[in-house]
Write a structure and sequence with these properties.
Helix content: 25-40%
CATH superfamily: Phosphoglycerate mutase-like
CATH topology: Rossmann fold
CATH architecture: 3-Layer(aba) Sandwich
Shape: globular
Largest sheet: 6 strands, mixed
Strand order of the largest sheet: 3-2-4-1-5-6
Number of domains: 1
Order of helices and strands: EHEHEHHHEHEE
Number of helices: 6
Number of strands: 6
Length: 198
Amino acid sequence: MLIDLLRHGETDGGACLRGSRDDALSPLGWAQMRAAVGSSRPWSRIVSSPLRRCAEFAGALARLHELPLAIDDRLREMHFGEWEGLGAAQLRTADSGVVPRFWSDPAAYPPPGGEPFGSFQHRVLESWASLCACVADDHILLVSHGGPIRVILGRVLDLAPQMLPRLELPHAALSRVRVWEESPGKVIASLAFHAGRL
């Protein structure tokens, strides 16, 4: 089975920690995502985060290619609490000590009032496990956010949480993971390709 992971494109409102905010894609964001997937139709189905910056594009693509679409709430972005909607400059003045610690170790230093990393990781990997449980000749497009995709790639690459912020995922980055059953009940995955059009 192949699972392509597509991060949403640029959103309205400029660069910030968007988290659970439900901002829409900008016109550039739509163009970025269209360019990432191209005109091909290799997928058998699409699974998306419910947030508009993912779900609206996923819905449009599903209608265009007449593909089934599932919305999975577990694939929404991490909730950043008091940091939601803040840009880089605002974050530096908001809590200069905690922010760098969060980026160096998100599990140990959660955002104030935000979602604990362990809870975030658990829900994302629960969704991932449900997809991997259906190992078959299937090709899924998963449309989500930088945080959930980093968690999934971290599982595939066996990375500690401290390493996840180092994974570069620009807007509309496309990654491909190949999943197969090594033995009954044991599913393994490998990162086959990352970034750009597949």
